[in-house]
UniProtKB/TrEMBL annotation:
Protein name as annotated: Uncharacterized protein
Length: 210
């Protein structure tokens, strides 16, 4: 009987480990986002930073194995599954506009991670966090579901409808993210202490869609 109980405990631990890891990681993202928001003297921006930073970290880790485009798609898909999960398990699940806001910040986080890697060869977490903080401080990230840039959506909990809305807008949102990063390159370099690497014909074009 004891052996059976031990075996059952091991099996449960194996299946629970990914969930526990996810919970711990999610809390870590939230913790660092709050620190970044405080350092930039922001009120209400930590959730936006958290989503952008979490997506940027997910993309970067996946990019160690997969191509730019596959990593981008998987990172955004994981964000969508997070919204699906919250609709069922969260104490106060997000309405559609809240989910849209979070997924939009995910798109910005992934674009920012690629932008840093492609333009500066930077793959460290601290710089990605600071970029998310910079974008939040300039209100490029979305803070609230009532942000005027969030489309009018029914005030209901419907993750699938929110995902359909963000996927329809994804290409345009990604393009606008890159446009802002490129247009404000000088200011971002100064804020983050970046040194651009020269782009030349010897560099292979990236597979990341822009």
């Amino acid at each position: 009987m004891l052996r059976r109980l031990i075996k059952l405990a091991v099996i449960l631990a194996i299946f629970a480990a990914p969930v526990a890891t996810l919970v711990v990681t999610y809390r870590a993202f939230a913790h660092f986002a709050r620190i970044e928001a405080r350092e930039r003297r922001m009120w209400g921006g930590s959730n936006a930073i958290k989503h952008a930073f979490a997506a940027s970290e997910t993309y970067t880790r996946l990019n160690l194995i997969f191509s730019d485009e596959t990593s981008r798609r998987l990172a955004l898909d994981l964000g969508e599954w997070n919204e699906r999960g919250e609709a069922y398990i969260a104490h106060e699940p997000d309405i559609q506009s809240e989910s849209y806001k979070d997924m939009r910040n995910n798109i910005y986080g992934v674009a920012g991670a690629f932008w840093l890697k492609d333009g500066y060869g930077i793959t460290d977490s601290q710089t990605r966090l600071r970029l998310a903080g910079y974008l939040a401080a300039r209100r490029e990230l979305y803070f609230y579901a009532g942000d005027r840039r969030v489309p009018q959506l029914p005030e209901t909990v419907d993750a699938e409808a929110a995902i359909a809305a963000i996927e329809k807008d994804e290409a345009a949102l990604q393009a606008s993210s890159f446009a802002y990063l490129d247009q404000h390159r000088d200011q971002i370099e100064k804020d983050l202490g970046l040194v651009s690497r020269e782009a030349g014909p010897h560099l292979q074009p990236s597979s990341f869609p822009r």
